[in-house]
Design a protein that fits this description.
This protein is mainly beta. 0% of the residues lie in helices and 24% in strands. Strand 2 (28-33) and strand 3 form a beta hairpin.
Length: 74
């Protein structure tokens, strides 16, 4: 675990929400929810390129209509 957001979010308001996760080559990461920054941190645990994406649901029903992962060729 690199960072945790431990405040309440109202994601069950009947609307669609946009989650954007950005990670720079220097390890800086920013997570935005509906264009509002909720997490900013730096991943200093690894010098390697970002190579994965995982979603873990600890409870509740969630649906994803689109996931896009953008990157650069190695």
């Amino acid at each position: 675990t690199i960072e945790v957001y431990d405040q309440l979010l109202n994601l069950e308001d009947g609307r669609s929400h946009n989650i954007e996760w950005r990670r720079g080559t220097d390890g800086e990461m920013v997570v935005l929810l509906d264009d509002k920054e909720i997490i900013r941190t730096v991943d200093r645990a690894s010098e390697e390129s970002f190579d994965g994406f995982t979603v873990i649901n600890g409870g509740g029903d969630y649906a994803f209509s689109q996931i896009a992962i953008f990157g650069t060729n190695r």
